[in-house]
């Protein structure tokens, strides 16, 4: 079943009755927004009214040379394409990569509002985890064999990243160091054991580390045990994004940057209006993830949550020695609002997570939401007090697309056959978006190989409520998470 927040569904809903219902809900929302005290709605005072986060103090952008790079010209005038891809993140670029290799003769156009990698794809922690997200749901609903097939499918995402490096020279500082999933309390150790049993049942090798084992490899008293997963990797996400942009252009995709899409009109062809031009496309792919609600898509299905990251100055040899961590694994803890940290190629610590605020009416974040950034800086020193005095060089944030059941969704809009989408990567999209793009390319070309039968294909994203109820529900959930012993596990 396709989600019902598509352009076609939006059009169908524009009946008198729905207009009246919408007006009533809008009136209630407007009343609540103006009448309830200002503090009722958490808002980010730095956020400009535009589409994007403008605060660019992003270590990955800098290390990928993005500030020196030429950004492509926007789409201008009236043009036609065989396939239009909207959104130049990993999902859009993976779709383009898979389509152009199959159909080099077609005109495939990618429209990106800022520059490729500007969204979550160039801002994330760079954890290239396999098998996520939604793996546990699939395990619980369908058993270990189905979960293993899903896991194996995501390996195609990792393989694509390797292929980009091998065949297209995309160097993204990929390090196959595995990961440590950490318990921040002794009471969480059974959850690690349960996780290990699930992996055992799927036939996947992992290793449980008790407190002593763990502390011999990572000098932090904040953690009491870990599950080591050797399959995961870390990378520089902006280098991957900019490398993918170069690779798809070399293969023949036309990439228009600074081409913010203002309107998508369903039909045959699909009409796309950007700030400076128009595109009529036989087929279209919407790869906007957390930004989709800004175009009126998936408004009541996707929850854009914001997440923040800080980067330290490079650690000296003695600072590195003091924290152990010789394995350079990606680290994340078990809590629902978890922290993640990893080393960069030049030995900075990139540290993120712990809070994921939702801003009223699905707004993106400015990227410099001070409460989250300051909390991260304090939290890093709680994790490694021996690094007292460590200086931070960068801090930034980004917008992710969450679903109520934590499952991504890929498919055709409103059951049609010329507009497709990929969304809902739930903060774990580095590898999944590579796979999602492969699947969307199959759907666009009308092929139905086994990956198009994965449970995320056509998955109905559950309803998340209209505003202001959505805002209230997300805030209540956040409070409940904090209240439940402070540390409920994932
Ligand atoms: C701080 C942070 C940390 C994260 N850490 C990890 C991690 O370590 N590992 C992991 O697996 N996942 C992580 N994620 C999630 C991961 O980054 C995302 O799931 C993934 O990048 C989503 O890719 P995407 O292509 O779907 O969306 P995006 O990368 O968000 O791409 C959407 C693109 O659409 C463009 N756009 C928006 N509106 C318009 C418009 N109107 N017209 C044209 N273009 C438009 C945007 O500029 C953007 O480039 C993290 C996310 C954040 C924010």
Supply database-style keywords:
490 residues, disordered N terminus, alpha/beta, eight-stranded mixed sheet, binds flavin-adenine dinucleotide
What does this protein look like?
The chain has 13 helices and 18 strands. The protein is an alpha/beta fold. The strands form three sheets. Strands 1, 2, 8, 9, 10, 11, 17 and 18 form an eight-stranded mixed beta sheet that branches. The relative contact order is 0.20. Residues 1-42 have low confidence and may be disordered. Bound molecules: flavin-adenine dinucleotide. Residues 51, 86-92, 111-114, 118-121, 123-127, 129, 260-261, 287-291, 295, 307, 309, 340, 352, 397-398, 400, 425, 427-430, 433 line the site of flavin-adenine dinucleotide.
Q: Helix/strand-derived class? A: alpha/beta
Strand count, sense and closure of the main sheet? 8 strands, mixed
* Distance, first to last CA: 28 Å
The distinct bound ligands, ions and cofactors come out as:
flavin-adenine dinucleotide
Low-pLDDT residue spans:
1-42
- Percent strand equals 15-25%
Query: Given the structure, what is the number of helices?
Result: 13
Question: What is the radius of gyration?
Answer: 22 Å
The overall pLDDT, averaged over residues, is: 88
Task: Kindly state the number of beta strands.
Answer: 18
Task: List the topology elements.
Elements lengths: L6 H6 L3 H20 L23 H5 L13 E10 L3 H13 L5 E4 L15 E2 L6 H8 L1 H25 L10 E5 L5 H13 L5 E3 L1 H7 L7 E5 L3 E2 L2 H15 L2 E3 L4 E5 L4 E5 L2 E10 L16 E10 L4 H7 L6 E4 L5 E5 L5 E5 L16 H14 L8 E11 L6 E4 L6 E5 L8 H14 L23 H15 L7
Parallel strand pairs: 1-2, 1-11, 2-8, 4-13, 11-18
Antiparallel strand pairs: 3-7, 4-6, 5-6, 9-10, 10-11, 12-15, 12-16, 13-14, 14-15, 17-18
Helix pairs in contact: 4-9, 4-12, 5-6, 6-12
Bound molecules: flavin-adenine dinucleotide.
């Amino acid at each position: 079943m396709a989600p019902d927040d598509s352009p076609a569904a939006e059009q169908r809903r524009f009946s008198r009755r729905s207009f009246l219902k919408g007006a009533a809900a809008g009136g209630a929302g407007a009343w609540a927004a103006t009448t309830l005290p200002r503090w009722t709605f958490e808002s980010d005072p730095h956020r400009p009214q535009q589409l994007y986060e403008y605060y660019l103090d992003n270590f990955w952008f800098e290390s990928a040379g993005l500030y020196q790079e030429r950004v492509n010209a926007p789409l201008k005038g009236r043009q036609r394409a065989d396939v239009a891809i909207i959104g130049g993140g990993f999902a859009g670029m993976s779709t383009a990569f898979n389509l152009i290799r199959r159909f080099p003769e077609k005109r495939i156009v990618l429209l990106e509002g800022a520059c490729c990698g500007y969204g979550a794809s160039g801002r994330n922690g760079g954890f290239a985890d396999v098998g996520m997200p939604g793996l546990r749901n699939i395990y619980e609903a369908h058993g270990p064999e189905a979960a293993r097939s899903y896991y194996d499918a995501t390996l195609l995402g990792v393989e694509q990243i390797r292929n980009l490096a091998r065949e297209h020279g995309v160097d993204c500082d990929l390090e196959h160091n595995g990961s440590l999933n950490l318990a921040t309390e002794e009471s969480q150790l059974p959850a690690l054991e349960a996780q290990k049993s699930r992996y055992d049942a799927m036939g996947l090798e992992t290793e449980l580390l008790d407190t002593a084992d763990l502390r011999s490899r990572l000098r932090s008293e904040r953690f009491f045990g870990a599950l080591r997963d050797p399959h995961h990797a870390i990378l520089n996400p902006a280098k991957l994004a900019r490398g993918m942009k170069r690779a798809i252009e070399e293969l023949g995709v036309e990439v228009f940057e600074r081409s913010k899409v203002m309107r998508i009109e369903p039909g045959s062809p699909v009409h796309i209006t950007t700030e400076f031009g128009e595109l009529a496309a036989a087929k279209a792919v919407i790869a906007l993830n957390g930004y989709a609600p800004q175009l009126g898509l998936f408004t009541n299905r996707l929850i854009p949550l914001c997440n923040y990251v800080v980067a330290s100055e490079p650690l000296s040899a003695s600072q590195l020695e003091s924290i152990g961590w010789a394995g350079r694994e990606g680290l994340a803890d078990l809590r629902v609002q978890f922290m993640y940290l990893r080393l960069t190629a030049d030995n900075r610590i990139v540290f993120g997570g712990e809070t994921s605020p939702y801003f009223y009416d699905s707004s993106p974040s400015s990227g410099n939401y001070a409460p989250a950034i300051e909390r991260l800086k304090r939290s890093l020193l709680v994790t490694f007090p021996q690094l007292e005095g460590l200086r931070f060089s960068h801090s930034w944030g980004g917008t992710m697309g969450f679903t109520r059941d934590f499952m991504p969704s890929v498919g055709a809009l409103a059951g049609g056959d010329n507009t497709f989408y990929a969304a809902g990567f739930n903060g774990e999209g580095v590898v999944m978006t590579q796979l999602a793009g492969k699947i969307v390319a199959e759907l666009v070309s009308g092929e139905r190989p086994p990956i198009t039968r994965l449970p995320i294909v056509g998955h109905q994203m559950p309803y998340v409520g209209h505003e202001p109820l959505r805002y209230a529900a997300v805030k209540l959930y956040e409070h409940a998470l904090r209240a439940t012993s402070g540390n409920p596990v994932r």
